[in-house]
Amino acid sequence: MRHSLLILSLVASSSALAEPPAAERPQPTASQESIYRALSVRDPVPSCETVEALSSAPVGDLLFVVDHAAQPPWAAMRAAQCLVRRHSAEIQPQIEGWVSTEETRGLALMTLSFLDSMPIEVALPVAQAALAGPLSSEARPRVQKAETPAIKVLAR
After folding, report:
1. In Å, what is the CA distance from 45 to each residue of 14, 39, 75?
2. 21 exposed, middle or buried (CB, 10 Å; 0-12, 13-18, 19+)?
3. What is the Rg, in whole angstroms, of the alpha carbon atoms belonging to the chain?
4. What is the mean pLDDT of each run of 10 residues along the chain (156 residues)?
């Protein structure tokens, strides 16, 4: 019963045709559900440290929430913000995927606002992926706003 609320709120895909049957949907762990519930509150927004303390494997659990939480919409975005701010080097392939795909436009735009807080060895390929992808026209002005010259120059 305790997973039922999360399962009802989590969706594998925005397209009903692409959504796997209920029996095939991934079941959230207790820590994934705890993180989801913490990130779902409207106010006050919990800190990333508080949310991560709910799990022994916060990166994987936060990625689960990003990938599966549909409602409220801010739950997945808050999980992604924690990942981008605190674990960008660990999840660089996922971040590059977010900025390279039309389907993850919201994640892409949010991610690009944190380029300066990422290690430069992560921020540069992320910015390059965004500028080379289908969201390049929206990515360019965000990359230009970076304070780090090596990132900003990519948007010329």
Report:
1. 25, 7, 10
2. exposed
3. 16
4. 41 38 77 96 94 97 95 95 97 97 95 96 98 97 96 94
